[in-house]
Backbone:
């Protein structure tokens, strides 16, 4: 009798783990950013500082994840 209850408990634990991990997988995929550099990006500004950061390898997704904004060499923003 004790073996049956242990198996039932382990089964419930495994099913619960699958449900919890499965729900987290959907969120992780939604936050994935490509690693490619935006060739139009000349500099980046990350608030609260207003210093222009040069020599960057960022794109709109990676810059926004850091709270930054990318700009072209004429000063126009790339990401809206």
Residues:
């Amino acid at each position: 009798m004790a073996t049956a209850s242990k198996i039932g408990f382990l089964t419930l634990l495994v099913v619960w783990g699958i449900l919890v991990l499965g729900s987290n997988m959907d969120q992780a995929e939604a936050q994935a950013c490509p690693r490619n550099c935006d060739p139009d990006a000349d500099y980046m500004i990350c608030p609260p500082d207003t210093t222009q950061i040069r020599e960057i390898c960022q794109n709109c997704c990676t810059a926004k994840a850091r709270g930054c904004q990318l700009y072209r060499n004429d000063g126009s923003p790339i990401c809206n």
Notes: The beta strands are 43-45, 69-71. Residues 70 and 76 are 9 Å apart (CA to CA). The radius of gyration is 23 Å.
